[in-house]
Specification:
Mean pLDDT: 87
Shape: globular
Structural class: alpha/beta
Number of strands: 8
Helix content: 10-25%
Number of helices: 2
Strand content: 25-35%
Largest sheet: 4 strands, mixed
Distance between the termini: 21 Å
């Protein structure tokens, strides 16, 4: 997930230069960029006014279908995730890597999306 100041500008940039298709739901704060032919999706989220951009604004998001099950297994191996969150048709949870970088597991990729 990339936190950006202007979501529309960033989405247009990635669509223009890299061929991503832009998917956005009115009920969702995240804009999803889907690459042509499959591959890694980029999620864009508007940065807060006080949020510092750059490496501190990058969150690694891993597609996991069973978030509660994954978090329980990870906990048994010493990786503790925060609260499980329910969003627009999917679940997610956050943790930190050994260097303090934020990471997330999300079932977002497994939900049904509507194309606009």
């Amino acid at each position: 997930m990339l936190y950006v100041r202007d979501v529309e500008r960033s989405a247009a940039f990635y669509a223009l230069h890299f061929g991503f298709s832009v998917h956005q739901s009115p009920a969702d704060r995240i804009t999803e960029l889907i690459p042509p032919g499959g591959g890694t999706r980029l999620l864009l989220h508007k940065a807060g006014k006080a949020q510092k951009l750059g490496q501190a604004a990058v969150k690694l998001v891993f597609d996991i279908e069973d978030i509660p099950g994954f978090c329980e297994t990870a906990k048994s191996h010493g990786l503790v995730f925060g609260s499980l969150h329910q969003a627009d048709g999917y679940q997610f949870a956050n943790a930190k890597d050994p260097d303090g970088n934020t990471l997330q597991v999300s079932s977002r990729a497994y939900r049904q999306i509507e194309t606009i």
